[in-house]
Design brief:
This protein is mainly beta. The protein has one domain: Porin (Beta Barrel). Helices cover 9% and strands 40% of the residues. Strand 5 and strand 6 form a beta hairpin. Helix 1 runs antiparallel to helix 3. The longest helix has 12 residues. The two termini are 25 Å apart.
């Protein structure tokens, strides 16, 4: 699955109050900009480690990509704007120099055991492919895979086009150097790949996703995740994506995105 990665590889390396992106943050559309999942994973990590009155879990994380996130050091501003023993709301902004590039809001809910054998928790057996096909750079129709693609490992049962179903992926490096990735950060990184959902046009228009909202049903205990979803493009310059993320035990999260459609460029 792609070339080997360096020992102790990570998306970001901390440097004082800055997070320095590595080449594994590089996105597929602009060699000087980050893949949207990289800052989302960083934000999810920072929110998940925010102190709370009682044990909390992220139930919703909405990340607004206000402008392309450059491959330059980022400063994070994390604030608790609503504190409580049942609900906590945390806002996070990432700055490149003094320019805000990403803003996110997270809703965290208290952790509590809920009894019942028949809860509609979305669990079902969803095993990994038994004979996955090897994946190389041609799968992504790019002359050379960007760093963000090298940061992940992929499993495909069959391949018939871009993001063919079913596919599995896992983040195989740390989000912050020296720290094991948190489950919700893995979710946030993989969720951004949903931007390619839906019929892929062979000619203009193209699009970018301007946000990513994940609603977390449960945190996945393992590393492998898969996506299934749909995408639409409207005639007025907007579009949308809706997707579901699974692990081997069933449904984990849902994802929604809005699309900025550009009629003059290819996707």
């Amino acid at each position: 699955m792609f070339r080997p990665i360096e020992k102790d590889a990570a998306l970001f390396v901390p440097d004082g109050d800055l997070y320095v992106p590595t080449h594994y943050c590089q996105g597929p559309w602009d060699p000087g900009a980050q893949f949207g999942g990289a800052p989302a994973a960083l934000i999810a990590t920072l929110v998940d480690q925010t102190p709370s009155l009682v044990p909390m879990q992220i139930a919703r994380l909405t990340t607004d990509l206000m402008r392309p996130v450059p491959l330059t050091p980022l400063r994070a501003d994390v604030r608790v704007v609503r504190e409580g023993k049942k609900i906590q709301v945390v806002t996070t902004s990432l700055f490149a120099d003094d320019l805000e590039v990403t803003r996110a809001t997270a809703v965290r809910l208290r952790r509590a055991a809920v009894e019942g054998d028949d809860l509609p928790d979305g669990r079902f057996s969803n095993p990994l492919p038994t004979q996955p096909k090897p994946v190389d750079k041609e799968v992504f129709m790019l002359p050379e895979p960007p760093g963000s693609r090298l940061a992940m490992e992929y499993l495909f049962e069959e391949f018939g086009g871009y993001y063919n179903d079913p596919n599995w992926m896992r983040l195989r490096i740390d989000v912050i150097a020296g720290e094991r990735p948190r489950p919700v950060a893995r979710l946030a990184f993989v969720a951004d790949t949903a931007s390619g959902m839906g019929p892929f046009p062979v000619a203009p228009p193209g699009w970018i996703n301007a946000d990513a909202a994940i609603n977390v049903i449960r945190e996945p205990p393992g590393e492998w995740l898969s996506l299934d979803g749909r995408g639409w493009i409207g005639h007025t310059g907007t579009g949308q994506v809706q997707a579901t993320i699974y692990d081997t035990e069933g449904v984990v999260s849902t994802v929604s995105m809005i699309r900025l459609v550009d009629p003059s460029t290819s996707a």
